[in-house]
Write a structure and sequence with these properties.
heterotrimer; A mainly alpha; B mainly alpha; C alpha/beta; A: mainly alpha; ABC transporter involved in vitamin B12 uptake, BtuC; 74% helix; C: alpha/beta; globular
């Protein structure tokens, strides 16, 4: 029991940090440019697939470095040649553009790599158990992923709060027009921020690829959860995204490990009949099975009781 | 059909005779077309396609109630479509088991009522926010329902879905609804009724306020209306019509599966509506017909047809945000001012390099497809009846030239066409003012 | 006015509004009797628009009361205040750009004429709505432009439309926020006669910077400086008030 809690906590934090790596880029892009990048999870997927492909020829580490760079460049291109053109047609058009992008990226990946999972394995250098706890081995690679995410988070925080570039970005977060008038090239800032955001998503991809699974439905599975994170955290709030990422990461991970169900607690339903069969589904469902919908339940609850999100600052 | 979500206004003085032939005439013509169509496309595939188009028209129009009319971008509209369908199949099975004398023609209404009920339930939560947050909420709710569908196996049938038999109901006048032709007429009747209802709805005080909320939700409050109430009603009513479409699909295929309330179905209706055009009533109709047709035909020609759709969609979002209907409506002032002939040659001139570019792109896609998905079949392939090897350099060269050259020429032609259009427009305006 | 007169149209008592640590409205007491034309003037940043936002329901007061005909409306949602007969126009033109001029006015009449959320009646067949819309459009001199999408109107036409939307519901109390801002001399004259016409038999509260307009129209003037009213009197007496000259008129000039 204790080992499950410990392992689940580690896994939950890892999952939460991966979510935050993506949610942070998403939040910054939204705060600065007012557009919620629907395709953000697709860049995460691109990172994983690029990392996989590169690792086939050159090993894991070149992929770890090159894939995010490549995806970041693609992200900048998407902003420069796509999003910027659509900007004048309004927010709905921007959202629909990124929505269409999700579609196209998924189709391209399916065409080139197929629909089956890829054998993206952790590098041999890290492919050993980090420690053994309660007779369960915790892989070193996961620990590595955890440390990298936390390191990036700390660097980001420092960069945004302390550096000059960070100050400009913070200012452009709420007053892009004014920042432009102060002489900064806001267009270039937008492009770089978009590239950075998508690059971060790709980093999450090269970490998650070996840990979770590298498959063409990665984005479709993780995308909606990502948006739940930003809405629950409060659209436009980095701190909120952090809290919500960890919350949902831990919640889902613990839920998956839990095989409780109403039937398990109260016993099987005695009666029989058509209606009972329907209720029976709910009665016997385990918490583990519910793990997939827990984020959405959380979303609905937050919307009923605190529509602005946990730390929402913006009414969009 | 005249524009409703734009500036269609009643003239201060109405010529009632003209209104009759103008307004009702279009509906009579539509009815005639619906009756005659299956006589023209009478094959099995033709009937199925027509039936599908009819249902998608209702679905897309219901979606545009949200997007084009009220300015609400929803990513989970298929929920009402799917839930409407599921409740319809369950009710059909229930009615058949208990021998309740309820004829088939009523069941789309049951789907509609289900859609309405769920629209009210989900709308109460979703319409608390607007804009991007609303879009994300609809996404979350859609995922919630889709994931629940896999858990609640008795209600949603798991992977196999829930099936039913549409011929096992009471049959007044001896119409069994076994043959597809009869089902088509059922769909056509409901399609006509739904179109008329949604058209009429847009011209009510409520419908006009939906447009106002779309344009300026803040000001709406200062003229006495609660913006959230308007959005909530729009959401619920659009769920009603989506439910009707769902009920019809349940009847048509006699099977409902959980994919029909999932993200793909929601995405599909967004595609249809936007490609057709969100700013005109007729837009979603055009979109539904075109996309259904392409879905049916393209999937035979190439297995990456979904990629083409995605690219088409992105292209329209970037360059033709008004959709096909918007594009057509832009020709209207030219038509009225008799200036259309001035621009037609330019359109033709721009079309040629455009087609070349599309051809080049398609070639690249198909060759990549051959080399990756069909790698085991070898590099030999056929493109528009021309056989060649996908790994030879020549086809790639041709593709790149077509794509790059075609795009460049198209952009030049487009600029000139833009000039020609603007000139023709001002000429048309002057003609109207002096006429 | 006798002592038996009905409750004043608007009564503000100790009205306060703070945003975080900053107090924008610092205690306003104001009584506006029914039928009065009242102007609010003051330097930029004094809080005039904030005052309007408080009265019309956009902001919730941090303190004090707002009474509309003796009913406390502080903190009510804007549509609830509007339904009680108070309507406003906006400093930055706030119309429905994609709807036609006709539609803009028609939408503004619907609630007041009782049609609410009706989705079973064809709006084109409502003769009373058509009549009122025509009336208002004639009033604001935009009847010949009824077809145009509101977004293509000239600036002055849009300002007139904004006022038209505010009066379409036949409100008892009209709040106009800088109605002549940005207008030429001729346009201002037309606007003034329009405002005079539509505010007959109504209570008018107006924010204005144009002193000519203010002295032309207003029965009384209140001067708002740094969130407080430093004078509230007839135009002549306000003109002569030393504190006002000091704070405002002296430095700006008419």
């Amino acid at each position: 029991m204790l080992e499950i809690i410990f392992i689940s906590t580690l896994n939950g934090i890892l999952y939460g940090m991966l979510l935050f790596l993506m949610a942070s880029g998403l939040t910054v892009i939204f705060s600065m440019m007012g557009v919620l990048n629907f395709a953000h999870a697709s860049f995460y997927m691109l990172g994983a697939f690029f990392g996989f492909e590169i690792s086939r020829y050159m090993g894991y580490w070149p992929g770890f470095v090159l894939a995010p760079l490549l995806v970041g460049v693609i992200g900048m291109g998407v902003e420069r040649y796509g999003l910027r053109q659509v900007h004048r047609h309004g927010h709905v058009a921007e959202l629909l553009f990124t929505f269409g992008l999700t579609f196209v990226i998924q189709e391209l990946i399916e065409m080139i790599w197929g629909k089956l999972p890829m054998n993206y394995s952790a590098p041999t250098a890290l492919n050993f158990p980090a420690f053994e706890i309660f007779a369960i081995n915790y892989p070193m690679f996961k620990l590595f992923g955890l440390s990298v995410s936390i390191a990036i988070f700390v660097v980001l925080l420092a960069a945004v709060k302390r550096s000059r570039v960070g100050l400009v970005v913070q200012a452009a977060l709420s007053h892009p027009g004014m920042v432009g008038m102060l002489g900064h090239n806001v267009d270039r800032i937008f492009m770089l921020v978009f590239g950075l955001g998508t690059g971060l998503a790709a980093v999450a991809g090269v970490i998650a690829g070996p840990v979770l699974v590298t498959q063409s439905n990665m984005a479709a599975l993780l995308g909606p959860i990502l948006f739940v994170v930003v809405v629950v955290g409060g659209l436009g709030s980095l701190a909120g995204a952090f809290v919500a990422s960890l919350m949902i990461g831990l919640l889902q991970t613990f839920a998956v490990a839990c095989n409780l169900s109403l039937a398990g607690v109260f016993g099987q339903l005695g009666a029989s009949g058509a209606l009972v069969a329907y209720i029976g589904d709910i009665w016997t469902v385990t918490v583990a099975q519910l793990a997939t919908i827990l984020p959405y339940l959380l979303l609905v609850l937050i919307l009923i009781f605190r529509p602005r999100g946990l730390m929402g600052t913006r009414e969009s | 059909m005249s524009r409703v979500s734009g500036s269609r206004v009643s003239a201060p003085s109405l010529n009632s005779g003209r209104v009759f032939t103008g307004t009702y005439g279009v509906w009579v013509a539509a009815a005639v077309v619906l009756v005659v169509l299956p006589q023209i496309f009478s094959s099995g595939l033709g009937l199925t396609t027509l039936s599908l188009m009819g249902m998608m028209i209702i679905f897309a129009l219901s979606y545009n109630m949200l997007l084009g009319q009220t300015g609400l971008l929803s990513f989970g509209h298929a929920v009402f479509f799917g839930l409407g369908g599921f409740i319809t199949v369950h009710m059909m099975n229930l009615v058949e088991a208990d021998h309740v004398p309820l004829p088939l023609v009523v069941f789309p209404l049951i789907g509609g009522i289900s859609g309405l009920v769920f629209g009210i339930i989900f709308g109460a939560v979703a319409t608390r926010r607007a804009g991007t947050a609303f879009a994300m909420i609809t996404l979350g709710i859609a995922e919630l329902v889709a994931s629940s569908a896999l858990i609640l196996r008795h209600a949603f049938g798991g992977e196999e879905g829930i099936s039913t038999d549409r011929t096992d109901l009471v049959q007044p006048f001896g119409i069994t609804f076994g043959p597809q032709l009869q089902v088509y007429y059922l769909i056509a009747a409901w399609c006509l009724a739904s179109m008329a209802a949604m058209y009429a709805l847009a011209r009510t005080p409520f419908g006009r306020m939906c447009n106002a909320v779309r344009d300026n939700p803040e000001r709406v409050r200062f003229i006495g209306y609660n913006t959230q109430t308007v959005r909530f009603m729009s959401f619920s009513l659009s769920g009603f019509f989506a439910g009707i479409a769902g009920g019809l699909i349940a009847i048509n295929f006699e099977l409902m599966s959980s994919t029909q309330l999932g993200a793909a179905q929601s995405g599909s209706v967004i595609l249809m509506t936007y490609i057709g055009g969100v700013g005109e009533f007729i837009g979603p109709i055009i979109g539904a017909v075109l996309v259904t047709y392409l879905q049916v035909t393209l999937s035979d020609v190439t297995d990456v047809w979904e990629l083409y759709f995605g690219l088409l969609f992105i292209g329209m979002v970037m360059f033709v945000p008004g959709g096909i209907a918007g594009l057509l409506m832009q020709q209207r002032p030219l038509l009225q001012g008799r200036q259309l002939h001035r621009v037609l040659p330019y359109y033709g001139l721009a079309l040629l390099p455009g087609l070349a570019a599309i051809l080049g792109l398609s070639l690249v896609i198909e060759m990549t497809n051959q080399l990756t998905v069909h790698a085991s079949d070898g590099p030999a392939m056929v493109f528009f009846y021309v056989p060649f090897n996908a790994n030879a350099p020549l086809p790639w060269l041709i593709a790149v030239i077509l794509l790059a050259g075609g795009t460049w020429l198209f952009l030049c032609a487009a600029r000139t066409t833009g000039h020609a259009y603007r000139e023709a427009l001002s000429a048309a305006r002057m003609r109207r003012e002096t006429a | 006015m006798t002592h038996a007169s009905p409750a004043p149209a608007l009564e503000l008592a100790g009205l306060k509004k703070t945003f975080g640590p900053i107090e924008i409205i610092r205690g306003i007491d104001l009584v506006i009797p029914t039928g009065e034309r009242h102007a609010v003037i003051g330097p930029n940043g004094a809080g005039k628009s904030t005052l309007f936002h408080l009265i019309s329901g956009q902001y919730r007061p941090s303190g004090g009361t707002i009474r509309l005909r003796d009913e406390d409306i502080a903190g009510l949602a804007p549509q609830l205040i509007n339904r009680r007969g108070l309507s406003r126009s906006f400093q930055i033109t706030n119309i429905f750009p994609r709807l036609s001029v006709w539609e803009n006015i028609r939408c503004a009449t619907l609630w007041a004429m009782g049609y609410r959320y009706a989705f079973w009646r064809n709006v084109e067949r409502l003769a009373d709505v058509r009549q009122r819309t025509e009336e208002i459009l004639t009033e604001i001199s935009l009847l010949d432009r009824w077809r145009a999408p509101a977004g293509v109107l000239t600036y002055a036409e849009q300002r007139a439309l904004d006022i038209g939307i505010a009066i379409a519901g036949k409100p008892d109390i009209l709040l106009l926020d800088e109605p002549t801002a940005g207008m030429s001399h001729a346009e201002t004259e037309r606007a003034v006669s329009l405002i005079r016409r539509v505010s007959e038999k109504r209570t008018l509260l107006m924010i204005e910077h144009d002193m000519g307009v203010v002295f032309d129209l207003a029965d009384r003037i209140s001067v708002l400086v740094y969130g407080k009213i430093i004078a509230s009197d007839t135009p002549e007496r306000v003109k002569a008030n030393a504190a006002v000259q000091d704070a405002y008129l002296g430095t700006e000039g008419a």
